[in-house]
UniProtKB/TrEMBL annotation:
Belongs to the LysR transcriptional regulatory family. Keywords: DNA-binding, Transcription, Transcription regulation. The keyword Transcription regulation applies. This is LysR family transcriptional regulator. Signal peptide: none annotated. PROSITE patterns: HTH_LYSR. The keyword DNA-binding applies. InterPro entries: LysR_HTH_N, LysR_subst-bd, WH-like_DNA-bd_sf, WH_DNA-bd_sf. Residues 1-58 form the HTH lysR-type domain. NodD regulates the expression of the nodABCFE genes which encode other nodulation proteins. NodD is also a negative regulator of its own expression. Binds flavonoids as inducers.
Length: 296
């Protein structure tokens, strides 16, 4: 049995598409298919149902999933801890963070505690929420920093992961201002409002979708990048729910104004996640430093 078989299985169970999973694993599709078959032979049961047009998990495949995630993370952790005991170290501690928090929140946050920087050698990986969750589930990173709302849904099972609140933010429905510094687009009017929205990979998109009541919004553009939506809102292309921390300079300058009522704003948290199981000495020391600056 090879660890890469488990990582292949997790990629395929996520995408349910051999071509996409093989691409994500940086291997040819025939080679990827052979490795999946090798895993199934080792298990002794088929994990996937393959048809001409689809791939689905068998009951055995569904049962296999949770333990495969746990085992993969545990093996990565075992390697890191063994290298740590041997005095060789396993390289920098990696933190996955969503794109917007990587440049609006993370720099100020890590500088707020001398202890965090003193522990040193941090590696920030910036990506979409979906990609960050995948890295966390695979054990590729030690921590995940993201916006969070209790209604958004998360792939990080609370039995396997824990988190602390390290900041707060607000999703605000914003529009470019007109010449009178009033909203160019407004939900208060009867007109259909052009809506700039987030793609499914976005954690902010999950939050907005969980909070959005039926409104007369015409979806005209989709992106997983809040910065892209911000740029289009500035240009007057429509409205978007944006983190206040991202748009605060534009709001202060009066170039962007709120396009909805008070109920349109969504208070959200900024959370740091980690595996619930005890980690290596370096990870635990860094977690203690993060806990010291936890938002009450």
């Amino acid at each position: 049995m090879d660890l890469i078989w488990f990582e292949d299985y997790l990629a395929l169970s996520e995408t349910l598409n051999f071509s996409k999973a093989a691409e994500a694993r940086h291997v040819t599709q025939p080679a990827f298919s052979r490795r999946i078959r090798a895993l199934e032979e080792w298990v002794g049961a088929p994990l996937f149902v393959r048809t001409t047009h689809s791939v689905t998990l068998t009951r055995a495949g569904e049962h296999f999933h949770t333990q495969a995630e746990i085992l993969t993370r545990a093996l990565h952790q075992l390697r890191r801890e063994t290298l740590e005991v041997a005095g060789r170290g396993a390289g920098p501690l990696s933190i996955a963070a969503t794109h917007v928090l990587s440049f609006t929140f993370f720099p100020k946050w890590v500088r707020s505690s001398e202890k965090i920087l003193a522990l040193g050698n941090l590696n920030l990986i910036s990506d979409s929420m979906l990609a960050c969750e995948r890295m966390m589930l695979r054990g590729d990173v030690s921590f995940l920093l993201c916006h969070y709302h209790r209604s958004m849904g998360s792939r990080l099972d609370t039995r396997q992961f824990k988190s602390i609140v390290v900041g707060t933010d607000t999703l605000v429905l914003l529009s470019a201002a007109d010449g009178d510094r009033k909203s160019r687009w407004s939900l208060q009017n009867d007109e259909t409002v052009p809506y700039l929205t987030y793609s499914p990979q976005s954690g902010l998109g999950r939050i907005v979708a969980s909070q959005l009541v039926k409104r007369d919004l015409k979806k005209i553009f989709t992106s997983h990048l809040a910065a892209t939506l911000l740029s289009m809102v500035r240009s007057g292309d429509g409205v978007a729910w944006l983190p206040r921390t991202l748009a605060e300079d534009d709001i202060a300058a009066g170039s962007l104004v709120e396009a909805g009522d008070a109920k349109s704003s969504v208070p959200i948290e900024i959370r740091l996640f980690r595996p619930a199981a005890r980690q290596g000495q370096e990870v635990e020391a860094l977690w203690s430093a993060f806990e010291a600056i936890e938002v009450g």
